[in-house]
Design brief:
The chain has 270 residues and is mainly α. It has one domain: Phosphatidic acid phosphatase type 2/haloperoxidase (Vanadium-containing Chloroperoxidase, domain 1, Up-down Bundle), CATH 1.20.144.10. It has twelve helices and no strands. The longest helix is centred in the middle third of the chain and has 25 residues, at 114-138.
């Protein structure tokens, strides 16, 4: 692992400090970015900058699509889809479990699904290291830094981080992929929520559409690689049993407003 990767590994673990500090200085509500433990993979196991397509360049067809998506999604401001994108800004375990509760069919919390919570933090430790490496490689600006338009969160929360690939999308798709394997009977609903979580970043205006697509690739690549880890597979077995027991429990709490959420995310956001 080269020096840049060492810095990235350290930076991902402490990223929450930087985000919180930057937001506080700007008077913005901080994004809750949890500290991540060591993942399952060896450092440098994935070179995401080689896996994803190169970032769009100014004026090429993908860049033009990004510009068009950013402009068209500004019209969603203050609507229900915008509100969902705003909720999807938060990345803390509690927020992620709430985001995916409807798709799983039971209310998820760190208390009732501790094994799921633990495995997700380690999975994210791997996927975010891979993603930060790609971000630093491509150094692409975010859409609001290129064209004018409001976004769904304070710009100070994201302006110091590059666009491509989208870390939020990696985060959301990682949750979706793990949950879909743990509850395959709900895979369609879970993966639909994962797609919507990623698209929330383009709706918000914090990321380009191409960055959302690349983030999904990073998450899928990491998830596939993780299956080579016996420790990961063993932890997945435990989390699967935990989730099955939770879903089967007679008194399991059901999430609210799931029909409205399903109707909102069924179509593509752009």
């Amino acid at each position: 692992m080269n020096d840049m990767r060492k810095l990235i590994c350290a930076g991902v673990v402490t990223a929450g400090i930087s985000i919180l500090a930057g937001a506080a200085l700007a008077g913005a509500e901080p994004v809750k970015f949890p500290t991540l433990p060591k993942g399952y993979l060896a450092p440098g196991a994935l070179n995401a900058e080689h896996i994803v397509a190169p970032a769009p360049t100014d004026g090429d067809p993908r860049d033009q699509t990004d510009r068009a998506v950013f402009q068209s999604t500004r019209a969603l401001k203050d609507g229900e889809r915008w509100k969902l994108a705003t909720r999807d800004v938060q990345m803390a375990p509690a927020a992620m479990m709430e985001a995916y509760s409807c798709s799983v069919g039971v209310k998820l919390t760190a208390d009732n699904a501790p094994k799921l919570n633990a495995i997700m933090l380690r999975v994210l430790g791997d996927s975010m290291v891979a993603n930060e490496s790609a971000k630093h490689h491509f150094k692409r600006l975010r859409p609001f830094q290129v064209a004018q338009g409001e976004i769904c969160q304070p710009t100070a929360q994201v302006a110091s981080s590059f666009d491509y690939p989208s870390g939020h999308t990696v985060w959301g798709w990682s949750w979706a992929l793990v949950l879909a394997e743990l509850a395959p009977d709900q895979a369609t609903e879970i993966l639909t929520r994962g797609r919507a979580y990623g698209q929330s970043r383009a709706v918000c205006g914090a990321h380009n559409a191409s960055a959302v697509e690349a983030g999904a690739v990073v998450a899928a690549s990491t998830f596939a690689t993780l299956h080579g880890s016996p420790e990961f597979r063993a932890d997945m077995d435990q989390a699967r049993a935990e989730l099955a027991a939770l879903r089967a429990a007679p008194g399991a709490e059901k999430p609210q407003a799931c029909d409205a959420e399903a109707a909102l995310i069924a179509p593509s956001a752009y």
